[in-house]
Specification:
heterodimer, A: two-stranded parallel ribbon, 12 helices, 18% strand, B: 101 residues, alpha+beta, three-stranded antiparallel sheet, two-stranded antiparallel sheet, 9 strands, 28% strand, globular
């Protein structure tokens, strides 16, 4: 290598941060696996080198007549040209053969989200059919996030949460957190029961009840990887100073420690509050509640703590 | 999910099926241009046929904002939230009732 190239390489390494080791991956599945684990201890500070010389195209035939085609580089031009013809033919038509295009290097598996079934307690399925599109989408995202947390894929769960917040703002984030933590499941149970006992579903009542609860839950804080401990503690302290009926801090998985740090900075609450602390292995909660309304919200989550 | 992989795919092997492409960013951007989209001076994606900027929920987008194209009618998505919404609107979210609470 020419000395100038050596110098530039050294400079680039310095600017990028030097890597301890290099991981060579030979196909897209291995590459996706490595990207998904990039923050894990075994791959941290590693450089992932793509070596797809013998694997410009990989096709996975799934059940039915669906093909997942991984196209890595320009050597796949012939196939791409055929696909272009097909995509062009789709542009002006509806209900044409399906082509979906997703990025190969994302943590989130878009096709998996699209094709995998979302498991939902059967007592909620009638209710699901009555939700508006926004709540249906948020429920699908919330189920997906919960699944990733339970499978210890916190990085994918966090990425999905960030994406949900980009699309649906604080409301969407709160929806997912309240579902994961169990509050919304109880609201759903109540609505499902009402639905079973009524002759005609009242979609407006269902949507306004869910929206009302989420908007009302402004003093429930969910710690996450990127939470600012001081800011979150200030919000909790403000809620306690304002004597809100129900104030809570929750942390799930790696965020449990973050939630504990928030609680350490929370001042002593008034004597009118009942206080509950649950410190589990991968879950931490502290709740302050008072009065009839506070007791009602506590009842929604009590059994799940 | 049953999987079958092979290195040198032939178009005939899958031309009639439903396809999902996984592209890196460079290849994806090239694909955009080949199927009738360009980028204007401000960097926004333009539909060459109607000479208008592509919008997602009223927001003009740059190629780097796009995380995927959905089947039929070239529906662009920026994130998994967009995908969830499109699936909800099409009633294509797959729900499996379970006994789990």
């Amino acid at each position: 290598m020419h000395p100038i190239e050596v110098f530039i390489k050294g400079l680039l390494d310095f600017l990028r941060g030097s890597k301890d080791k290099a991981i060579k991956v030979n196909d897209i599945e291995a590459y996706r696996d490595a990207i998904n684990k990039i923050d894990s201890p075994e791959l941290r500070n590693s450089e992932i080198i793509k070596d797809f010389k013998d694997s410009t195209i990989t096709v996975n035939k799934t059940e039915g007549n669906t093909y997942n085609i991984y196209i890595i580089d320009k050597d796949a031009d012939e196939i791409v040209d055929k696909l272009v013809e097909r995509l062009k033919s789709e542009k002006d038509k509806e209900n044409v053969p399906k082509v979906n295009v997703f990025p190969a290097e994302e943590k989130i598996n878009y096709l998996g989200f699209k094709d995998d079934e979302k498991e939902l307690d059967k007592k909620y399925t009638s209710l699901y059919a009555q939700l508006n599109d926004r709540h249906k989408a948020l429920l699908a995202l919330a189920i997906d996030i919960t699944k990733h947390y339970s499978e210890k894929q916190a990085d994918i769960a966090d990425a999905t949460k960030r994406s949900t917040a980009e699309k649906y703002g604080d409301y969407g984030l709160k929806f997912c957190n309240l579902w994961t933590q169990g509050y919304l499941k109880n609201i759903f149970s109540m609505l499902a029961e009402g639905l079973a006992n009524s002759n005609e579903p009242d979609k407006i009542h269902i949507d306004t009840t869910i929206t009302g609860f989420i908007n009302e839950a402004d003093s429930i804080e969910f710690a996450h990887k990127y939470s600012d401990v001081v800011k979150t503690a200030i919000k909790v302290n403000n809620s306690l100073t304002l004597k809100k009926d129900y104030v809570a801090v929750h942390g799930l998985g790696s965020a449990a420690e973050k939630a504990k740090k928030v609680v350490e900075k929370v001042k002593e609450a008034g004597s009118e509050y009942k206080i509950v602390t649950k410190d589990g292995k991968r879950r931490f909660s502290k709740i302050w509640y008072k009065g009839e309304h506070g007791s009602y919200i506590y009842s929604l989550v009590e059994k799940l703590l | 999910m049953a999987k079958e992989s092979f290195q040198s795919a032939r178009w005939e092997d899958f031309k009639d099926g439903e396809l999902a492409l996984f592209l890196n960013e460079d290849t994806r951007d090239k694909l955009f241009s080949k199927i009738g989209y360009s980028v204007d001076k401000q960097g926004f994606l333009v539909d060459d046929k109607i000479k208008e900027r592509v919008k997602i929920n009223g927001i003009e987008i740059k190629p780097s904002d796009i995380k995927g194209i959905l089947a039929g009618s070239h529906i662009f998505i920026r994130n998994i939230g967009d995908l969830a919404e499109v699936l909800a609107q099409r009633n294509e979210i797959k729900i499996r009732p379970t006994d789990k609470s």
